[in-house]
Structure of Phosphopantetheine adenylyltransferase:
Amino acid sequence: MKAVFPGSFDPITSGHMDVLTRASRIFDTVTVTVMHNARKQGRHLFTLDERLDILRTATEHLDNVGVDSFGGLLVDYMAQEQKGIILRGLRAVSDYEYELQIAHLNRQLGEVETVFIMAATRWSFVSSSMVREIASYGGDIRDMVPRASADALRLKYADVYEERERTSEAVLPDSDSSD
């Protein structure tokens, strides 16, 4: 059975990876599909190509996972690619309420089913927007995202990270001094 894991993935987080890794053990193939909307151009931190590159790197160890993009209705993509299941990750009850509405609409529009996988509890608080916010201040996000995302965020905010490191080094006591 073929599944599609749609999203903006700006960037992919450890929660996404948790759901994706577990789904890769359930489904024959899983396609991570970056859904893009021309009307939302410029709202993402990473370009579409950057997000696709991050995803390819983050998922290269998962043999039955592919990466794609689509601009339009998800149900149209599902029909075009002959995919069977929409995969969605859930972190909390608030996610479920929203995702349930979308699942019902997709079922009505395109006769496609949605399967929900709960993210592990340790990732229930992690979202792409929160990770971007922390990274924008030079915070340590390495445990919240796969290495490909961490590296891309560090490049995107290189000036902030460099300044933070300079400030940290200036605050550290000199270990060579004696009392």
Summary: The helical segments are 14-26, 48-59, 74-81, 93-110, 128-136, 147-156, 158-171. The two ends are 69 Å apart (CA to CA). Residues 138 and 162 are 8 Å apart (CA to CA). The domain at 2-124 is CATH 3.40.50.620 (Rossmann fold).
